[in-house]
Amino acid sequence: MISFKILPDHILFRFDWQNMQKYRDMELPRPPLASIESLQVVCAETVRACQSYARLTGTSRANALKRMFIFAKAEGKAIPASGSPDWKVFVQEHYIYHLSHPEKTTQEGDKDLETIRSEWRQIVYLYESFKQQKVIPLDTTIPTIKQPQIPDDDRSAEILDSVEERLWPLEDANHLWPKTYLIDKSLTVSTDKFLAKLQSDVEHRTHSILTACESYWDRVVICQRIGEDLIKSIPVEEIERVLSSGNFYVNHRYIADAYRPDGAAWFLAMIEHFFLRTGELRAISYTAMKAIPFFKPFCGNSYMRARMDQELRRIAGSYAAPGEDITETLIRLLGYVSARDCGAAAAILTAENPKFNPHALRSAAYLSDDDKPLHHWDSNLGCLKWGVSKPRAKARKVSALSPRSFKIYTELVKATMKARIRLILSGGGRKN
């Protein structure tokens, strides 16, 4: 069930959701120049589009409408009436606005090109649904952002400088085929042998992918244990004593300085305290830390922060997250998982349990509505069974977990425990 309500200063969308409130609200800005009739039409069509898809896909359509309203409000535009030719100009100006305003809304800096492209793709889907319902005229051109397909070789530069079309004379057709094909095509292979080889190749590639994902996930778990030991080395009582005293220095050095033997431990323990216990830290980022007095000496000194980044990488060692950004390694040491980490675990569960698809795993629950685990032990099969819900399915899709899937599932439950506790404390989710 999806509903919306037009209020004086914003528009409220409400979705059925698996959380404590049983619903999720999304606030959309209300363009001042938009008429009630136009708002009713586009909101009603968005609700209709959302109901045709799974829950997460539906929210992405509402997010696309939100970006449309942000554009209209920022540029002082009215929402065109249904079927009006003004939509042609509106869509084109929205496209220009989207490309020229890459700023992030919650963090500093700009979005990367892939994020800009992905967000506009969702907007295109929404506009296309408007065209199907004739809210937007059918002859309206909706621009798209496509990845340029330019060969990566030494001649790439010639493409930009040359307008000459290069052709070659067609001679013997065999010259156009790869040499391996010219050899293989003369061999006679039975269908059974061909299918057996094909199956062998697929199984080999699948095994290689699963092995790589499992190795990646094992590094995530080990890194989390390293961080857990560091956090436990700083007693909660000692943290509360330092905070109550207001003195964050020991022998004239900041207590969370990487130069101190236990500086990294204090840094991680303080982040967990403010994020998990008090909730004062809204996100795990340097930008969010600036609002906490304890972190101000750290965030105000770029050299101190660079030393801590280097120290965290040293502590994590080969179990650190790939890439130059320290944030992913930091959240791994704190006992949380990133989207990349979840992707590795989901790849294993999806490959070994065909009933689970990636979309269903994104909203998979650990507990039922009455707080009972959704997994159970099958004594006949000697394995754990777990199921996921699918929006358009009549019943949960249950699969018997293999030993590798069982290991991933149990470790994933533990790895996401802190995140679920944080959601419970903030009132934004259940224990699943």
Low-confidence stretches: 154-166
Q: How are the strands of the largest sheet arranged?
A: 1-2-3
Terminus-to-terminus distance: 21 Å
Helix content: 40-55%
Sheet/helix structural class: mainly alpha
Give the topology string: H per helix, E per strand: EEEHHHHHHHHEEHHHHHHHEEEHH
CA-based shape:
globular
Q: Tell me the Rg in angstroms.
A: 27 Å
Question: Would you spell out the secondary-structure blueprint of this structure?
Answer:
Layout: E1 2-6, E2 10-16, E3 23-29, H1 36-51, H2 55-75, H3 86-100, H4 113-132, H5 156-161, H6 179-184, H7 191-232, H8 236-245, E4 249-250, E5 253-254, H9 263-277, H10 286-289, H11 296-299, H12 302-316, H13 327-333, H14 339-352, H15 358-362, E6 376-378, E7 383-388, E8 397-400, H16 403-415, H17 417-426
Antiparallel strand pairs: 1-2, 2-3, 4-5, 6-7, 7-8
Helix pairs in contact: 1-2, 2-4, 7-9, 7-14, 14-16
Could you name the key traits of this structure?
single chain; 432 residues; mainly alpha; three-stranded antiparallel beta sheet
Task: Please describe what this structure looks like.
There is one protein chain. A three-stranded antiparallel β-sheet has the order 1-2-3, covered by helices on one side. The protein has a three-stranded antiparallel β-sheet with strand order 6-7-8, with no helix packed on it. The chain has 432 residues and is mainly alpha-helical. The protein folds into three domains: 2-132, no CATH class; 210-333, no CATH class; 339-426, no CATH class. Helix 7 runs antiparallel to helix 14 (339-352). The chain has helices at residues 36-51, 55-75, 86-100, 113-132, 156-161, 179-184, 191-232, 236-245, 263-277, 286-289, 296-299, 302-316, 327-333, 339-352, 358-362, 403-415, 417-426; strands at 2-6, 10-16, 23-29, 249-250, 253-254, 376-378, 383-388, 397-400.
